[in-house]
Each structure stands twice: as C-alpha cells, then as structure tokens.
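We close this part of the discussion by returning to an individual protein. In the encoding step, the backbone of a single protein was reduced to a row of integers, each denoting a local shape. The sequence in question and its structure tokens are set out directly beneath this paragraph.
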Amino acid sequence: MDKNIRFIQGNQACVEGALYAGLDFFAGYPITPSTEIAEHLSSRLPQKGGKFIQMEDEIASMCAIIGASLTGKKVMTATSGPGFSLKQEALGYAIMTEIPCVIVNVQRGGPSTGLPTSVAQGDVMQARWGTHGDHAIIVLTASNHQDVFAITVEAFNLAETFRTPVILLFDEVVGHMREKLVIPEPGAIPLVDRLRTSVKDGVDYHPYLPREDGRLPMSDFGGVHRYNVTGLFHDMWGFPTNKPEIVQGLHRHLVDKIRNHVNQILRYKEYYLEDAECILISYGSSARSALHVVEQRRPRGEKLGLLELQTLWPFPYQMIREKCKNANYVLVVEMNAGQVLRPTKRAVNDPGKVFLANRVDGVFITPTDIRNILRIIMGQGA
C-alpha cells in the first residue's frame, strides 16, 4: 500500500499539513472537537524534532506560540469556540506585534459551553472581530481532507509572508469524519520560510521598518540583535509611542498589508457557475451538502452552481460580486444565524436576491434542508 495514502480524520489531516509545512512548536490545551490535533502532534511532532507542550489553559497556549515564533520557529495551536474566546487578548497582541502563527478553531455549538460534540459554524464573525480594535485578519477553511491538508500548509505560508496570525476555521464534521488523504511528496507544495533580516551584528537594527515591498524581515529573539516587542503602538525600534503620525502609520500598515493583497490571499472553488441561475455560496462541511444538491439537480435541468469559499477573511466582496452578477438567486448555506449571509448581501448588486439555508441546532445541514429552501425561493412551495 502507498505510504502516502491515509484514511484518517480531518483533525489528523490538519496535523499532516502542519508537519509538511515545517511546524516546529505546538502549545495547546485539550478541548472537543479539536483534541485529536494535540493528541497526534504530541507523538508526531517530537519524532520530527519539534516541541510539543500541553499548557495550563488556552491563553497560555497562545502566549507560548507567540514566544516560540519570536525565536524563529513555525508555530501552531488548536482549540474550539470556548478556548478561542480565551485566546483573543493574545491574538490581538500577535496582530500588533506581527508574529507569524497559526490558530486552528474546530468549531462547535455555542455560545458558552454550548454543544461540545455537535457541529456549528458560529465563529465566523468572532474570527474576524473577536479581538478588540480595528485590525485585519486572515481566516481560511476547507470542506474535505485533501483541502484541509493544503489549506493548513497555505496558512503557514501566509503567516510567514504577511507576518500575521492566520486562523484555520474548521468544524466538528470536517474535524471528526474520516476519508482518504493523499499526502503530497516533499516539494510538491511550495513552502514559505521565515524572512530574516540581513542586518549584521553591531549595525542599528529596526525590527519594525518594512522593506519597500511591505514585508518585514525578522531577527530571531536570543540571536545577535536586541529589540523591544510590545502590544502598545510602537516606532520602528519597537518602543512605545503615542505620536499620532506614527500611530496612524502603523495602523495603516497592519491593515493594508492584508487588505491590499486580497487577491493573493483569496482561495475558493467553483462548480458549474458558467450558466448558473441560482448560485449556492457555502464553506466548510456545509459545502459538501451544497455540492451534493447541485450535482443531483443539474441533470434534472436545474441550473444550479456552487461557490465554495476557502478564504473567509478578508472577505472576497469583489469576487462574489463578479461571480454572482448574472444569477437570479444566491443561496448562502451555513450552520449559523447568517454570518456569511450579511457580507454576501453587501457584496452583490441586488441584496434582495440573497437568501439563507441554515441550521443552528447542532445537526448537520443536509441536502434535503437545502432543497426545501430552494423550492420556496423558486416558487415551488414548501
């Protein structure tokens, strides 16, 4: 049997993707339904020469990976909704200090303890706005194990490219279901390594002075350069400042380095959009049911298409507007109260043609649920 073929859970596919990307350090705290990520990394990562540590809580886990990243390591943590809430303060610190790191949130029902073992997609807006203050963030997702692997690798690449935290927003169904995964050969997927400064020892080093291309080289903490890292607004040496012009410049840099590269960050898949009169927009495990409906109904003459989002933030407003401009209807399929519905309505030319098929009860949304909403939209009754 080919050693590169596995039949595993989605959480394990995430582990394999992280190891492929060069993960060096993982700190986490067990929580359903993400625990398998920590469980498998506790054995796999040391075998690869990396470090695994179980922290006392989710805040400490986030702080630990920030520290490890500053020393030059590729880092990751994993959690679910309640733990993700606890990480928000440190997530904001990583955004302000521009620390490359990957945070996996395998979503479950909420708020609070909610439905620990049930599926949900209710953390989309939390991933965007969970930490306080104006900021930009990269959030990726996937609906199958092959894409979970690839998008995990991509998360590490984007974290290193833009010096930013990247959130992987999976869900309980994707995390726990088992299906085939083919692990690519080394080198098949390009990897982005840490961009390190070329400034020599003894030369004045500016840790927060971007190059002309906007990228910000790093110097490993504990190496030849001494510099300050703070969650306060800071100057190019890393020291706190409240000078309005510096605050404004840093704020613009933190937002624009992501917002100005939406096309580089954007990942999506499309099915049968060429002649689609009704386009389904979905993501994560919900997209599996949406694709089933599209492929089942098209042979019957129903011109349905699917736009599967893999980049949730920055939200692909322009792409959605272009893809949906000729559709009569747009149906957003998700397992929350409409968190992607709202930005989709802002994206399209006619918000009145956008509808929602959803569940919020911890039960996986089925093709039947989607078909029932389609019949109502198309005037065929319930």
Notes: The domain at 5-182 is CATH 3.40.50.970 (Rossmann fold). The chain has a mean pLDDT of 96. The radius of gyration is 21 Å.
